Amino acid sequence: MNKRRFQGVVESDKMEKTIVVKVTRIKIHPLYKKRYRVYKKFKVHDEKNKAKINDRVIFEECRPLSKDKRWRLVEIIKK
For the chain, how many structural domains are there in total? Predict the structure, then answer.
């Protein structure tokens, strides 16, 4: 089974074993063709508490770990 993977920037690392990652993407308005940014925040499981604020990370889908955590940290790209 293919698991979805996203890349984003760590917004918060205040929780134990959890980070909040902001994923930004660019959409184009259907009528005016203007580009604009939209973002979504994901709660990601970080078992060893390695990721810090402003790190760029890759995370993937996994089984539900809590009420809102369904993602697992794969790697830290840039510190």
Answer: 1
